[in-house]
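Intended use. Records like the one below are meant for learning the mapping from a protein sequence to its folded structure. Do not use them to infer anything beyond what is encoded.
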Amino acid sequence: MMAPDDRREKVNYEINRPTFARLKPPLPKICRFIPYSELLREIEQIGSRIRYMKPEFISEIAESCEPDYS
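Structure written out for the chain above:
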């Protein structure tokens, strides 16, 4: 899920709602947060070579939505 950086907490809160956490598989295990600023920075660095990129490059900037209970 991509959203503005300042929405990180809201996205994590919504994804971790009990309704979604009870799904099989739980949404927090399969959803990741992609900060808009990071995606924009990556695209700017890649430039016109973006058309050669595999979508998996996004996984490097995506953040887990699983709660940290430590």
